[in-house]
Amino acid sequence: MMLAVVFAILLGLLTPEARYAADWASLDARPLPAWYDEAKVGIFIHWGVFSVPGFGSEWFWWHWRGQKPPNPQCVDFMTRNYPPGFTYPEFAHQFHGQFFNPEEWADIFNASGAKYVVLTAKHHEGFTNWGSPYSWNWNSVDTGPHRDLVGDLGDAVRKRSLHFGLYNSLYEWFHPLYLADKKNGFKTQDFVLRKLLPELYNMVVRYRPEVIWSDGDWEAPDTYWNSTQFLAWLYNDSPVKDTVVTNDRWGAGCSCKHGGYYNCEDKYTPGQLPQHKWEKCTSVDRFSWGYRRNMKLSDLMDLHAIIEDLVQTVALGGNYLLNVGPTADGMIPAVFEERLRGLGAWLQVNGEAIYSSQPWRVQRENASTPVWYTSKGGSVYATLTSEPLEPTLQLLEPKTSAATKVMLLGNPTPLSWSPVQPNGLNVVLPELPYTAGHAWTLRLDGVH
């Protein structure tokens, strides 16, 4: 019997394990690991040296020292608050993270209802939140917190059965090897071969992230980054080859075309159901991903806006990755924690319509009350993202039957309903319970 199997393999009749070639046709054919689509909700964390100035955004260094002309607000901020000659790397000594408690962070993320967490391992400034051997003295072990932020948070997150992922910027604004390659029109790859790829391999083997959220790719083609070679290794031979998911930022022109799931652009919101799995990344602070000391309450998404955004995203087949920016001393601002816990409270009641759901044949009801549909098993879910003006809600998309049953999630009593011709139903709503998210979900069984 064994001889027959060996001959079959040699003849190509059987393959012991499918392998992916280092080209997009092969890599894009890889099935997305099922856990990711089932999870639906993730938390994004932008944390780094940029959290120290906490001004403008996580792009502070570039706006101050990179762009020409520099941002006058950033220049004025530094002139008024720091001595002449102060350099950005000096901020790293103030990135203490002294109040960082990964267990507390993980408790907040777990309470939010998220199923995965994505931490910035390295942003465009090049500072790594772990002791990267390829980022000497510009990492969180050699300076600043003097601890392995990636490893500590990863351990705490996984203890709560959440998936752990890492954001990694391919480029670094001011790395001399990158600047030399850029000057050479990306015909040389010294930065990629001596810094980026060794660091990526080290990160994957060491921390085994189940999401690699790539960024900073747009200045050069994927052939410069050696993206397909890295992804082939990731999918074929890495320690997370069976569970890892990746996004679509692997080189200029790759977004919305290549990769595991699509981000397309920050805060991407498609107008209709896409044909490919996608994710919306957005931030509680509408104007920054990193912490801003000068943020105002009016700059933030309120809980209703977050839930409305989540419901629409999931109805259109997407995952929802919600970002918070911790302070330099390692605290998640109380207003961000309040938003995350509020989201979790809503999901405790309505998560049945979110987790492991699929888009229904119709994504939205064309009615005065916004209604978004999802489905799971034999049930259809209709989520109302505002309170109806009338006690009776009309839904014209579902086709009812004698077995149709309508429930309000969180309410044990079936709701009364009557058919509408030729399709649809009128549902008599109870007094809707108060929710800070101002959204409620009906479960419809026996409809199609």
Describe the protein's architecture and organization.
The protein has 448 residues and is an alpha/beta fold. The protein has helices at residues 2-10, 24-27, 34-39, 60-66, 72-81, 102-111, 149-159, 176-183, 190-207, 222-225, 227-236, 303-315, 334-350; strands spanning 41-45, 116-122, 163-169, 211-215, 245-246, 278-283, 318-324, 358-365, 371-376, 379-384, 392-395, 405-408, 417-419, 425-428, 440-445. A hairpin with a 5-residue loop joins strand 13 (417-419) and strand 14 (425-428). Helix 6 (102-111) crosses helix 13 (334-350) and helix 8 packs across helix 9.
Short description:
This protein has 448 residues and is an alpha/beta fold.
Features:
disordered N terminus; 448 residues; 15 strands; five-stranded antiparallel β-sheet; seven-stranded parallel β-sheet; alpha/beta
Distance from N terminus to C terminus (CA atoms, Å) equals: 49 Å
Fraction of residues in helices?
25-40%
Number of strands: 15
Indicate the proportion of strand residues: 15-25%
Low-confidence regions:
1-15
Order of helices and strands: HHHEHHHEHEHHEHHEEHEHEEEEEEEE
Shape: globular
**Radius of gyration using CA atoms only:** 24 Å
The DSSP helix count reads 13
| Helix/strand class | alpha/beta
Mean pLDDT: 95
Largest sheet: 7 strands, parallel
Give the strand order of the largest sheet, numbering strands 1, 2, ... along the chain: 5-4-3-2-1-7-6
